[in-house]
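User: Predict the complex with iron/sulfur cluster.
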Amino acid sequence: METGCLAAFLLPHCRHGTRSRIDPTSELLRSDPNMFRKGEPKAAERPDQCPPTPVPETSDLGELRRAAANCRACSLYKNATQTVFGEGGREADVVLVGEQPGDQEDYAGKPFVGPAGRILDQALQAAGIDRSSCYVTNAVKHFKWKPSGKRRLHEKPSAREIEACRPWLQAELRSLRPDIVVCLGATAVRAAYGKNLPVLKNRGQWIPSLLGPNTTITVHPSSILRAIDPAAKEKAFADFVTDLDAVAAALRSKPQSRPLPSRELF
Ligand code: SF4
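Assistant: Here is the predicted structure with iron/sulfur cluster placed in the model:
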């Protein structure tokens, strides 16, 4: 989508606007109008051995963070050091959603402080996005890992764990009401859409999600670290920056005034 088109599409339904103009002819929605309904977890997929996700009725991020610290809504808390809640400015324009905390994040209690976080910072800078205008978080708030000698190897969260943790993500977004949500990789996409969507096929697209109307998709920065050689890594980084360029363009075209948002978006 070209930038001009994008701005017209995006901004009316962010917190700077009062009227939703989500494109109802979006390819994805047209091809699968029940996508959100289909994405809701079936009874058998819900975490039945665990208590409900204890999200308090508040938009206070500090309160949400304190409540999440005691979450036991899936079993991931058992092997993790701590809950890693999102972090960033209360007035963040962009919320970047990753997968889950990694080894370093688990110890630090902060998201995106490891190698993937450094790639993300570099890409944001290259795209001209002020890091302070972003809030970074993860679809799943506890580190899932398996032992390998002295190392803790990352394990992908299950659909059930993603579903269990989504209420925290939605609570963060209700509180922040950002202009834009960026899904970084497959787990964030699963959390945003309630189903798996191919990341590479949909990257750079603006597709309304369970997290908000102005949602876009790109890769997780850790995928750049896994590129097989320097040339592939350079290309992967450039492609990542291209996706973030579109986010930067949308932010640049936003109005200056900020009318109160509609909570109905969520
Ligand atoms: S991963 Fe999410 S749902 Fe599971 S215990 Fe941690 S905070 Fe709760």
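The first strand starts at residue 87 and ends at 88.
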